[in-house]
Amino acid sequence: MTQTTSGQGCRDRNLLTMRAVSSITDFCIGPLIQLCSESLSLLFSIYNICLIIYISSCLYYK
Length: 62
Fold this sequence. Notes:
This protein is mainly alpha-helical. It contains one helix and no strands. The chain has one helix spanning 6-60.
């Protein structure tokens, strides 16, 4: 039977806590980041379309 010091036990608990937080972060935050990325991509596409329409109208009425 191996005995661990209280310092070792504390380090083990900290490691388990960090792993749990990392897993929760990957599960919860990861999809949110992907969703935000897709939303920004869509907004950028809409902005580009509006910019093209604006430039086209400026050239048309010139």
